[in-house]
Amino acid sequence: MGWTTPEGREATRREITDLQELQRTLASSLHDLRDRWEQRHKGLPRRALPRPSLTDLAGRIAARRASSTPARIPAEPDAPVTREGGE
User: Fold this and answer.
1) Does residue 3 contact residue 12 with C-beta atoms inside 8 Å?
2) pLDDT tens string 29-84
3) Residue 83 φ then ψ, to 5°
4) Dihedral angle of Cα 12, 16, 21, 26, to the nearest 10 degrees
5) Interatomic CA distance for residues 81 and 87, integer angstroms
6) Mean pLDDT to the nearest integer, 10-18
7) d(CA 43, CA 78)
8) CA distances from 42 to 22, 60, 69, 75 (A)
9) What is the pTM for the complete model shown?
10) Residue 83 β-bridge partners
11) More confident of the two residues 85 and 53
């Protein structure tokens, strides 16, 4: 592999040093981005979405199911799925 020669060991040391520098640069960039993101959203109010009533949601789902035509699952695996009524 060449690691036993002085040149190979030096090349390995340089590569490790380069990778460590890349890691430091990437960490610094991520830290800067995080700071900028926090500063941008610091003064903005948090948006709170209203939570729907589970009873209301269940009623809407039931109404949707009742209004749609059920799918017909074909007996053959390669046949297309169709809706009753010819759709």
Assistant:
1) yes
2) 999 999 998 888 887 777 777 887 888 888 888 888 888 766 666 667 676 666 65
3) -95, 150
4) 130
5) 10
6) 93
7) 56
8) 30, 37, 49, 58
9) 0.43
10) 71
11) 53
8 A C-beta contact, residue 2 and residue 11: yes
The yes-or-no verdict on residue 24 having pLDDT over 70 is yes
Residue 82 tokens read as: 């169709």
- HEC profile of 24-86: HHHHHHHHHHHHHHHHHHHCCCCCCCCCCCHHHHHHHHHHHHHHCCCEECCCCCCCCCEECCC
- Of 35, 12, 15, give the one whose Cα is nearest residue 23: 15
Q: Which two tokens stand for residue 17?
A: 């040093």
Q: How many residues does the chain have?
A: 87
Two tokens, residue 73: 């699952």
pLDDT band, residue 15 (cuts 50/70/90)? very high
